[in-house]
Design a protein that fits this description.
alpha/beta, Rossmann fold, globular
Length: 179
Amino acid sequence: MRIISGKFKGRRIQAPKKLPVRPTTDMAKEGLFNILNNRFYFDEITVLDLFSGTGNICYEFASRGANQITAVDQNHGCIRFIESTAQQFEMPINTVLNDVHSFLQKTSLKADIIFADPPYNMDLENLEKIVTTVFERNLLLPDGELIIEHEKKMDLAMASQFVSIRKYGGSAFSFFKEN
């Protein structure tokens, strides 16, 4: 994976092959950040990355100037890799080793952007549970957005607070905001 823009533009990060992950493709990531670049000043936002995996999305936010990033994943190897990479590049990424659903039920952390990249085989009910929990617990700051990456065949348009969807190859990003 590579960092597309910002302070660390062009840097390649090689994750261990044994991690149980599917990193966001460069094409999809570039499309997502083109959208976000028009909506947010990265150096002024708080980011919560759920199902962080390799930390791919965290590194992109950090490279673009975000300085309050929290990465949540339940895999020890993923969390250790994110911590190591963040330390190597001096990125402001805090890590939390926890199940995402459990974390969302207990956290008091609020963010401008909550990005979730759950396994593509996660069922619709659990994807909708993420949306419901984020909005019921008021985890987004004013004008914040929840973004869920999923396979493009999945349709989240019926979920509450759905705003739009963008598709890139086999991936899609569904955007949610407070109405």
